[in-house]
Specification:
Blueprint (H helix, E strand, L loop, with lengths): L1 H17 L1 H12 L4 H36 L6 H20 L1 H8 L5 H28 L5
Helix pairs in contact: 1-3, 2-3, 2-6, 3-5, 4-6, 5-6
Length: 144
């Protein structure tokens, strides 16, 4: 019964880690023209989503490790090893992709179009990485 609850927690944390990024897609175009308090609210939304994803990622990893332990899955299982490789790469990417760009957009003198384009690329790249991890978890491919 514990294993089934862990699967549920793992799945919900994956949804919460990925889902809010879809809300940010329409905000990208609005960021190009927003000013003042509206701009700050959009940037706050980006910042909140990144933090939410980071914290639900902790639950995701913890529940995944527990599932590995309880299910007897070895670290050498290809889809598990592949997921952790992609996970560590995504952590490095996320640390540099969003927060510094959001901070620069909050500064009075900035190249808005360049920074929004950078944020847009980061958003789509990170979503792609999240979907690769999701694919590995669901499909469990034999990579080697």
């Amino acid at each position: 019964m514990l294993y089934l609850w862990l699967i549920f927690i793992h799945a919900v944390s994956a949804m919460v880690a990925i889902g809010p990024f879809f809300v940010l897609i329409p905000m990208l175009s609005k960021l190009r023209t927003a000013e003042g308090a509206v701009l700050n609210s959009y940037l706050d939304s980006f910042h909140f989503t990144v933090r939410l994803s980071k914290h639900t990622g902790h639950v995701l990893v913890a529940s995944g490790l527990l599932l590995m332990w309880l299910g007897g899955w070895p670290w050498s299982t290809p889809w598990i090893a592949g997921t952790f490789i992609v996970l560590f790469a995504s952590l490095l990417f996320m640390a540099r992709a969003f927060s510094p760009t959001i901070r620069k957009l909050r500064q009075p003198e900035h190249d808005r179009q360049l920074l929004v384009n950078k944020l847009s690329r980061a958003l789509y790249m990170y979503m792609f990485v999240l979907f690769v991890m999701l694919w590995l978890m669901i499909m469990k491919p034999t990579l080697w």
